[in-house]
Amino acid sequence: MQRKTFIRLSTSWAAAAVLGTAALSAHAAEPIVIGVPIPMTGPNTQYGDEVKAGLLTAVETMNAAGGMNGREYKPVFIDDACEPKQAVPAANRVLNSGAKFAITHVCSGVTVPASKIYEEEGIVAITPGATAPQVTDGLKGHHFFRTIGRDDQQGPFAAKFIASKLKPKAVAVLHDKQTYGAGVAQHVKNTLDSLKAPVVMYDGINAGDSDYSAVITKLKTAKVDVVFFGGYHPEMGLLLRQAKEQGLKTRFVGAEGAFNQGLIEIAGPAVEGMMFTFPADFSQRPENKGVVDAFKKANRSANGAYQMPAYAALQVLDKSMKAVGADPKKVADYMHANTFDTVIGKVAFDAKGDLKDFEFVVFELAKDGSRSQVK
Fold this sequence. Notes:
This protein is an alpha/beta fold. It is built from 13 helices and 14 strands. The chain has helices at about 1-30, 45-65, 85-95, 110-120, 135, 150-165, 180-195, 215-220, 235-245, 260-265, 290-295, 305-325, 330-335; strands spanning about 30-40, 75-80, 100-105, 125, 145, 170-175, 200-205, 225-230, 250-255, 275-280, 340, 345-350, 360-365, 370-375.
């Protein structure tokens, strides 16, 4: 009797051990969910497409190499439409997905309110595209980071280029009255003023309008030879096309948000001569050849503004989690304290979660929309 009982108990313990091992294995194999709120509809969809291309390439590459210690990365894409009113709903969808990590938003006007939710909920979030200083300046957070430079880095860079290389006789600084556009334009104006460049006009236009003839008339009257525009490509495209139609001969300069393929579709040949500040073409770094090959194999472009910063964002998360595990607080601590080798170069974050350094360059467009770096 006792012997039979012993056998049953032994069998039960063995079964429990097998089930326990299976449960542990299942837990270990659970994917790490990455929330990815980006514009997937609306006029700024291409920016979301760039983030998606970079992140998917990184996910596929890292999962093929074993993921995070055997746990695959699983991106959950969420549409924020680059609309500030969609910021909180999109951030809540990240939270409801169960994600403890996120690669978030391109547009600064969306990122500012959304970042507060990630910080409050302890989600480690990295934006590869939002450049407005307000994103981190007002957050006083620990969990929010960027893998792209700020407008107060990009704006002065653009202004110094305008003043030293274009040597204008009369500059106009325009913006779209939105968080990103107005912010970068203000930094350009402030730096131009400090350099004693002749800023003769500083004005805002309404995003979404279809007729900018009134502002173009002002530019003609002021005999402006350089215009800096802070904003996105739909408005820049219309400004370029309508300026050409009205015979305004001036050099237009923008920041990275003003350029993508949609700009060329709107403006056509009027894009000729437009210049824009942009993240360096990290696809040209020799050490990124293998990564660029992975983009090509997946039939994705690697040389837009946000592909490589998005790829770098997952690299940073991956290296941090492999060092300290998947606890968000420990990951954020590790990110603040360490330097990372990534596709955009060495990445180190300051106390706000901003990059200590980021490389911007200037490109010029030809009539057919092709671009070349201005040396």
